[in-house]
Design brief:
Chain lengths: 195, 195
DNA sequence: GCGCTAATTGGACTACAGTCCGGTTATGCC
DNA sequence: GGCATAACCGGACTGTAGTCCAATTAGCGC
């Protein structure tokens, strides 16, 4: 019999089972008590799994949050790489301008982060610099840099835009000004960088 | 005999003495071992003081870092409020434009943060949202907002500029691109907001 | 100088993140 | 199916941030 392999490092059946149980338990606890106030001990207990297993599989609390977000993060990344315009590259004969794509990215990214604000915040602020270490940041940065190609300093400007989209920043600023104004400001910033 | 009082809540002599000893010990340990790897226990021990005292006086590690920065933070704030142009308001007959002042603020703030990057980073990232809770952030935000008066949304744009000047962000981006490019990008952003 | 009162002190205590390693179990080969 | 091996498991352990309260001590009016 031929079995499908998703990737070279094969995951043992019990490990896969535990991973699923842990993620489900974590999601339930987070939903019920809020991301901040759930301890890793509690998650391990709820999943019927030892602490060592938790940390072995997910590294730390940020890694657990990242794993929970993985699905939707990939969806956004696929839409950016292969999806319809203006977020994606679209068809060759009707390609969106970089400025249009940057606006679309800003909107879509805000949708994503604001929908999962607590989880993203946890994944970005669990330890100082965490945001810049996870692979996702590199993806967003590369995408924005490419859209800014040819301007003064695409890489530096991309970092600046992403700074305004950091989860901890959004958390504080949305509480202060409301989502609408923050979104408009981010879009103005995106426009300014492509002007 | 007339004694000078700095403020209504009078500080007891022993408390003042301990505060000074603690700050000196913390500064020494930070200088020697780096901000990250010094524990509050170590600071208390080095200062010959109990842990309770440390937390009572400074709240947490971020508060301790803030106290150490207090001197220089005040100096910058004074220069902004009362100093010479273009950072300060200057003389009535030769006032700088808001755009000039915003560039000057960006430069001066970067000087300040980059000089004390580890301490500022600790004060901003000790706990999620810490940056937005300390009074200093409100000061910078108000200042930038005032300089942007009359434009689309001064408060939202001020938050966006300050996001690019966050210590954790600067730490990561300076490591990636170097100080010069980051500074130029921040200045371009300041210019864009006043255009 | 002297006692009254309230702030201050400091170390024992809790809770949590993250590490470690002896025992267990799945997997692949024969 | 049976066995060798490598990966996995889980709970005991460590180090640290932050809390709490009984004992102390400074400031103040007399």
């Amino acid at each position: 019999m031929l079995t499908l392999r998703t990737s070279p490092p094969k995951e043992r059946a019990d490990a896969a089972r535990n991973r699923a149980v842990v993620l489900a338990a974590a999601a339930a606890l987070f939903r019920e008590h809020g991301v901040e106030s759930v301890s890793m001990d509690a998650i391990a207990a709820a999943a019927g799994v030892g602490k060592g297993t938790l940390f072995r599989r997910f590294g730390d609390k940020a890694g657990l949050a990242t794993a929970l977000l993985d699905q939707q993060e990939r969806a956004l990344q696929e839409a950016i790489l292969f999806g319809a315009a203006p977020l994606g590259p679209g068809e060759p004969d009707a390609a969106p301008t970089p400025a249009e794509r940057l606006r679309a990215f800003t909107n879509a990214y805000l949708d994503y982060v604001l929908t999962h604000l607590d989880l993203v915040r946890m994944s970005e602020t669990a330890s100082p610099g965490a945001r810049y270490r996870i692979g996702a940041y590199r993806f967003w940065h590369r995408h924005v840099s490419l859209l800014l190609a040819g301007r003064s300093d695409p890489e530096a400007d991309a970092h600046a835009l992403l700074a305004a989209l950091a989860a901890d920043h959004l958390h504080a600023v949305v509480a202060d000004l409301g989502e609408a104004r923050v979104r408009q400001a981010a879009l103005r910033l995106a426009d300014a960088l492509t002007t």
